[in-house]
Each structure stands twice: as C-alpha cells, then as structure tokens.
Amino acid sequence: MAGAAEAAAAAPVPEAWPELELAERERRRELLLTGPGLEQRVRAAGGRLPPRLFTLPLLHYLEVSGCGSLREPGPGLAQGLPQLHSLVLRRNALGPGLSPELGPLPALRVLDLSGNALEALPPGQGLGPAEPPGLPQLQSLNLSGNRLRELPADLARCAPRLQTLNLTGNRLDSFPAALFRPGALPLLSELAAADNCLRELSPDIAHLASLKVSGDCEPGPWRSGGEGAAPGRAVPGTPQSQPPSLP
C-alpha cells in the first residue's frame, strides 16, 4: 500500500488547460492558444496538442502559434474537429512531416502551416488522403517559411478547390507534374513562390489564364511576378519587397 501511494505521489500531474475548459463550457467556435505558458504545457504533452482539444467538435477556428515545443498536432484532430473551417498552426516546430496526416477535414477552407520545419509531406504524413479528397473545400494553403524540397504529388487531388497557394521561402526546385495539368486546380488564382530554387514553370500553367504569380525576378533562384505565366520559363515582373501574405 505504501509503495502504491508513493508511486501515485511521484506520478506527473497533468497540465491544466483552462482555455479548453472555458471553450467547452461556453460552446465556443473559435479558440486561440498562444503565449509563453503554452511551451511548457505542450512539452509536457510530448510535443503534441492535448487530446482534450479534440473533444471540442463545435470549433470552426483553431489557432496554435509561436510554440517551439509543438512538433506534431497529435492523433485525433481529424476525427474530433470535423467542423473546422480554419486551422492556423504557424511559427511552431512542426516537422519534418506531419504524423499522423491532418485530414480528412471536410469543412476546412483555410490552412496555415507557415514558419515551421516541414521538409516533406508524403502520404500518411501530409495534408490528407487524395481519394476521396482529404481537404475537399480547402481554398487557401500557406506553407511559406518551411524547408520543403518537394510538394505532395497528389496535392491537386487532395485539395481540388484550392485558390491561393503560398510556398515562399522553401527549398523547392520544381512542382509536381500533375499540379498544373488542365482540370487539376481549376480555381487556382494566386501562387506565391519566391525564395525557392525554381527556375522554370511547367508548360501546363498556360491554361490558367487568371493565375497571378507573385514575387520578383532576380538572377539565380527563381522568383517571378506577374499574370498570365508564359509556359516553360519564369515571368519577369516589377520587384517587390514581399509577396502578398495569405490568411
């Protein structure tokens, strides 16, 4: 008996998450987790978000930002938060992949994973499945400020309604062959891809007459800006300090 009591006393006490308790009690649809106290609590949870977060099915907006201890969202997000419209996980330490993958998230429209340490998003460690689409309503995807060397080959099938794609500040040297094929992403209207290692655009980009490619044109790494991208080459444009930020 004494040994059991001593073991219980030595067991770590779960970190308190008053934000989650309040969100549950008030049936909130939006939740923001940030601030200095977040680091210690996420570290105590093993570098993941607390499982209790995934018991708030009414959430439409979730943001967890500025947490250097957050290395993966953790299992249960897709199953527990099916009504999410916006998911913002920026300026954390996510990477090198996402385990488990984020989707399916059938209602998600905005996904911001900028400023993390993502290197690759392969099947099972990426954004979601391709068949059926894991992110069927996604309109805005921000992957800027990571370490990506390639994009998922099935990105267009995973998020077929994508309109804006921000890839600024990665290590990309090409796009997946299927990304700009006719019919793959018919709604895509904005692509930000400055500060990568890209040198030319796919000829298939020509059918996207309304696509705006933002950035600037300098020798060396590909940076382009303008509308109506010409097939097979970077598009020269007026230099600008920063590509437009996405939600």
From TrEMBL:
Gene Ontology annotations for the cellular component aspect, listed alphabetically: cytoplasm
Keyword Repeat: yes
Record Gene3D superfamilies: Ribonuclease Inhibitor (3.80.10.10)
SUPFAM superfamilies named among the record's database cross-references: L domain-like
InterPro entries reported for this sequence: Leu-rich_rpt (IPR001611), Leu-rich_rpt_typical-subtyp (IPR003591), LRR_dom_sf (IPR032675), LRR_domain-containing (IPR050216)
Pfam families per record: LRR_8
Name of the molecule in the record: Leucine-rich repeat-containing
